[in-house]
Design a protein that fits this description.
Number of strands: 5
Helix content: 40-55%
Protein name: ATPase
CATH architecture: 3-Layer(aba) Sandwich
Radius of gyration: 15 Å
InterPro entries: NadR/Ttd14_AAA_dom (IPR038727), P-loop_NTPase (IPR027417)
Shape: globular
CATH class: Alpha Beta
Number of helices: 7
Largest sheet: 5 strands, parallel
CATH topology: Rossmann fold
Pfam families: AAA_28
Structural class: alpha/beta
Strand content: 5-15%
Order of helices and strands: EHEHHEHHEHEH
CATH superfamily: P-loop containing nucleotide triphosphate hydrolases
Organism: Aureimonas endophytica
Distance between the termini: 13 Å
């Protein structure tokens, strides 16, 4: 869907901050499914957490991302996603070896241009929801860097610059598309 724009990339690379910038400019945004799964699981002492059961976590994130995608159909204008279906499917595939769902290729599509935040060690920080280290985040980034083109998306790697400049890069690229 042309108006659904994916922002993905390295964990700790500034995606959430960038989405907050875009929201501040009046765009609709969808928060990262994985962080919401972690918050829900921690609140109920659940085990579908990436550091306990990555497969269960990824399945929950995939279900949540699919719901986000469907709900976004009812929103007007451009909708920016902080991770989504592809990210969750890649995590599930990494955890279990399962193939990506076929519907990723043909039914649940985002804008053809996907924006990735690269590894940025100077801003990377762990927190209660992000317990993995930078090398694990980089490995995840490399899987995403391979997965999006395999699903016929074009990647723009965002520069390591200010949040406002990153937002301008995205908006300019979308205007040119």
């Amino acid at each position: 869907m042309n108006r659904f724009v994916m922002i993905s990339g390295c964990s700790g690379g500034g995606k959430s901050t960038l989405l907050a910038e875009l929201a501040g400019r009046g765009f609709a945004v969808v928060e990262e499914p994985g962080r919401r799964v972690v918050a829900e699981e921690r609140a109920r002492s659940g085990t579908a957490l990436p550091w306990i059961d990555m497969a269960a976590f990824a399945r929950r994130a995939l279900d949540l991302a699919r719901g986000d995608y469907e709900a976004a159909r009812h929103r007007e204008g451009t909708v920016f996603f902080d991770r989504g279906l592809v990210d969750a499917a890649v995590a599930l595939g990494h955890a279990t070896g399962e193939a990506w769902p076929a519907w990723l290729r043909d039914r649940c599509r985002y804008h053809r241009r996907v924006f990735l935040t690269p590894p940025w060690p100077e801003i990377y920080a762990g927190d209660a929801e992000r317990r993995h280290d930078l090398p694990a985040a980089i490995a995840e980034y490399e899987r995403l860097l391979a997965a999006y083109p395999a699903l016929a998306y074009e990647i723009t790697i965002l520069p390591k610059t200010s949040v406002a400049a990153r937002a301008e890069t995205i908006l300019a690229a979308l205007d040119a598309a």
